[in-house]
Specification:
The complex is a heterodimer of chains A (150) and B (136).
Chain A lengths: L10 E8 L2 H11 L9 H6 L12 H8 L3 H8 L6 E10 L8 E16 L2 E13 L5 E12 L1
Chain B lengths: L10 E6 L5 H11 L9 H7 L7 H15 L5 E8 L10 E10 L3 E9 L5 E10 L6
Antiparallel strand pairs in B: 1-3, 2-5, 3-4, 4-5
Classes of the chains: A alpha+beta (150), B alpha+beta (136).
Protein name (chain B): 3-hydroxyacyl-ACP dehydratase
Organism (chain B): Pueribacillus theae
InterPro entries (chain B): HotDog_dom_sf, MaoC-like_dom
């Protein structure tokens, strides 16, 4: 692309995702996380939750199943999929998020850094997502740094 | 677990994960929706020059399991990682952590590392939790 800095401010179409218990269970099984709060209501209540909570990294599921696919996102950012790596991931949890919640996500590119190194340059593209629940409360914020090798 | 019981420099118990298999990468792809073929399709791994590599977010998920083994999920407010090295199927990941800082308002800041059995660091992260106080 002509200038990767032009990506700053690029907004993605908002997307919506209803969190299902079964999806949470499938996700923790894939990771091998056997914490019972993710599938047993009694265990969740014992920890002070009012329902089955999402695991810390589950917000990725909301992005990828509710929003753009990996390929679509690469096309929108005009990046070569075999040249990219996940550089950093930040999550901030503001309110509890439960199975049964419907989250709406707004997502945009907030920063681009261009770095030059001895083995070639790279672009660092930061996307910020804001997650609101069905009551309109902002419940989480995530930031993702994608590394695009030149 | 109370804020007063935690000290800067305290290490958390190591979480040892099972060896990563290709089937696990297929499961994680389906569960997460990350269908980047680099994680599951041999030819794409060869084209990228890396071979098949594990999802970084799978390793972050393991690190998150470590964090929520050490302090309750309910108390975790922030979690961020930097991905350092690629992980391949066949590697076994262990998660270690320690307390870096205690802040006002019952906040603790911890470090979390995911490394393979040779000690190669795959990701380095920071988490923040708010713990109950004995004085509350």
């Amino acid at each position: 692309m002509s200038n990767v800095n032009d990506l700053v401010g690029l907004e993605f179409e908002p997307y919506c995702f209803e969190i299902e218990k079964g999806k949470i269970r499938e996700f923790v099984q894939a990771i091998g996380d056997d914490n019972p709060i993710y599938f047993d209501m009694e265990a969740a209540k014992k920890e002070g939750f009012q329902g089955i909570p999402i695991p810390l990294t589950f917000l990725q599921v909301i992005d990828l199943w509710g929003g753009y696919s990996f390929q679509e996102k690469m096309e929108k950012l005009k990046l070569n999929p075999v040249k990219i790596l996940h550089g950093e991931q930040h999550f901030e949890y503001l309110e509890d998020i439960y199975a049964g919640d419907v989250l709406t996500v707004s997502s945009k590119v907030i920063n681009v850094d261009i770095k030059k190194g001895s083995s070639g340059g790279m672009d660092l593209i930061t996307t910020e997502n804001q997650y609101k629940n069905q009551h309109g409360d902002l419940v989480a914020i995530s930031r993702n740094v994608t590394v695009h090798r030149h | 677990m109370y804020y007063e019981e935690i000290n800067v420099g305290d290490s958390f118990p190591t979480l040892q994960k099972d060896e990563i298999t290709r089937v696990q990468l297929v499961k994680y792809a389906g569960a997460s929706g990350d269908f980047n073929p680099l994680h599951t399709v041999e030819e794409v791994g060869e084209q990228a020059g890396t071979g098949i590599i594990a999802h970084g977010m799978l390793i972050m998920g393991m690190a998150a399991q470590g964090v929520t083994t050490w302090i309750p999920r309910k108390n975790v407010k922030k979690f961020q990682v930097r991905f350092k090295k690629m992980t391949k199927p066949g590697e076994s990941i262990e998660i270690t952590g320690k307390v870096l800082e205690k802040k006002e308002n019952n906040i603790i800041v911890g470090e979390v590392l995911a490394m393979n059995s040779e000690g190669e660091v795959k990701l380095a992260g920071i988490f923040e939790g708010v713990l109950p106080s004995k004085n509350d």
